[in-house]
Design goal:
Strand order of the largest sheet: 2-3-1-4
Distance between the termini: 19 Å
Number of helices: 4
Radius of gyration: 13 Å
Structural class: alpha+beta
Helix content: 25-40%
Largest sheet: 4 strands, antiparallel
């Protein structure tokens, strides 16, 4: 099953995000939960990072919740909100 994880940072959180960025990337690379696609959400200036978006493949939502909670960004309090939803992929034009 696929899951979308939509995270928004605390206001003015770019410095905190950047200070934990390498640990976050290493965590995703080593994780047992399969990341299909991920990247930062951007402000309207198309540059300032304001959150994260992930598409994971996992057996259960609980697996994704646990994986997200163990992410260095989560542990450091980068995200103000996290929403996790099952996702039914209908189109993939890659």
């Amino acid at each position: 099953m696929y899951y979308i994880v939509h995270c928004l940072d605390h206001a003015g959180g770019v410095e905190k995000r950047l200070s934990h960025y390498d640990a976050h990337k290493a965590y995703l690379a080593a994780g047992k939960t399969k990341t299909i696609i991920s990247g930062p959400l951007l402000a309207d200036d198309n540059e300032t990072m304001i959150g994260s978006l992930f598409l994971f493949e996992a057996e259960t939502k609980e697996e994704v919740v646990a994986f997200n909670k163990a992410d260095p960004f989560s542990a450091a309090g980068v995200w103000a909100s996290v929403n996790i939803h099952p996702f039914s992929k209908r189109v993939d034009n890659r």
